[in-house]
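Entry:
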Amino acid sequence: MSIDAVTGWVRSRRLAAEGILSCVVASAFLATGYRTISALSAHSTAIRWVSLAGILTAAMAGFVVFHRGNLRRPNGMRVHSIGLANALTLVRALVLGGVAGFVLVDVDGVLSWGPALGYGTVVLLDGLDGAVARSVGMETRLGARLDMAVDTTGFLVGPLVAVMWGLLPAWYLTLSFARYAYRGGCVLFRWWGGEIGPLPPSRVRRPLSGLQMGFITGALVPIAPTHLVWTVAPVVLVPSLVVFARDWIAVTVHSSEE
């Protein structure tokens, strides 16, 4: 057996073992959440939570499986392990699934802190996975795709829970769909015969994203004054929407000038 064949066999076995471990951890997380909510609230509440949390967790797992061919470094070299950085991103995805479970759940007491603590954890870990990947030289294409997917999903799940709980106004969900509108606008522009140019660098894009994450986390905190949150919401929201519109104009005007 050649060295390449042995290396491929070892790689596949290691990735299979890591995949099984990930499934075990995810199952344990969902089971623990189900038992906790059952003990502190109604059984039907726990069923709704685990159903929604399980759906998003399964969707994220499917995303990883679908893009598993991108478990490569930026230069195209294959890696032999999910790695610590991707593992941290998977933890973010799993916790975000737990937050999603609260969309149709009405709880009080200590459970009402669940969305804020869960989303806050996702926010705190954001950037850490990328920093770890860069520090150990294990950046992968899969990691970049998964990180973007978790960020995008987080901007949907967090505000949706807050809106369903009356903590944010419904129009704040325009933030959740802004990225999809941007991508859809790019697709339509190509369909009309246009060419999408490169997205220009921005000094405000990342800080605004961090501001949104922090604001959403604060809005989910049970003791946060709702009237104040609703008052501040448009001040936080409008700049991000303006940046999305500016970015779309930038990538579409590019092709018109060439």
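Residues 197 and 253 are 8 Å apart (CA to CA).
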